[in-house]
């Protein structure tokens, strides 16, 4: 019997897939746990509508990510103030969290620190390159200038 999966099921398929399942497996395992529904014309039509809504949301999010990357690229560089000792060595290091906070203040948008990567550890004064990757094809490079407080 054909069923539409509502959730990922190991060795059967992903959520939204239309798969073939034994009637007993559906009746005893999938249906009681609300993991699947029988594939009728009505449920197939509803599935297509839900997939279309998800595609539209994904496209809107993708466009927002591209716009944010363009803003970051236009920004060019950010300045971070840090305490430094002799020969410009910092007390501690500049983290991606600090970079994300500065970007949030500059752009007034939320930035996830886990999406930021720096070319090297920032442990001294100077200019460094950083990259933010929001999607597979949406990334921006910018400079981080560390100056003494």
C-alpha-based Rg, rounded: 24 Å
Share in β-strands: 25-35%
- Describe the strand arrangement of the main beta sheet, using strand numbers: 4-9-8-6
Number of strands: 9
Instruction: Note the overall shape.
Output: elongated
How much helix, percentage-wise, in residues? Answer: 25-40%
Mean pLDDT: 92
Order of helices and strands: EEHEHEEHEEEE
Report on the structure:
- The protein contains 3 helices and 9 strands; from the N terminus they run ββαβαββαββββ.
- It has a 4-stranded mixed beta sheet with strand order 4-9-8-6. Strands 2-1-3 form a 3-stranded antiparallel beta sheet, with helices on one face. Strands 5-7 form a two-stranded antiparallel ribbon.
- The model has no long low-confidence stretch (mean pLDDT 92).
- The longest helix has 35 residues, at 41-75.
- The protein has 149 residues and is α+β, with helices and mostly antiparallel strands.
- The protein has helices at 23-30, 41-75, 96-107; strands at 2-5, 18-20, 36-38, 77-82, 89-94, 116-118, 122-124, 126-135, 138-148.
- The radius of gyration is 24 Å and the shape is elongated.
């Amino acid at each position: 019997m054909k069923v539409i999966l509502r959730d990922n099921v190991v060795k059967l398929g992903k959520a939204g897939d239309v798969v073939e399942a034994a009637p007993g497996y559906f009746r005893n395992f999938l249906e009681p746990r609300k993991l699947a529904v029988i594939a009728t014309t009505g449920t197939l039509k509803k599935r297509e509508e839900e997939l279309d809504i998800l595609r539209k949301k994904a496209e809107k999010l993708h466009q927002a990510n591209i716009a944010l990357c363009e803003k970051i690229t236009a920004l060019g560089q950010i300045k971070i103030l840090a305490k430094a000792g002799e020969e410009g060595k910092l007390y501690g290091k500049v983290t991606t969290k600090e970079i994300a906070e500065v970007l949030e203040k500059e752009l007034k948008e939320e930035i996830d620190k886990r999406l930021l990567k720096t070319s090297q550890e920032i442990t001294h004064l100077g200019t460094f390159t950083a990259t933010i990757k929001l999607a597979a094809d949406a990334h921006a490079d910018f400079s981080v200038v560390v100056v003494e407080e």
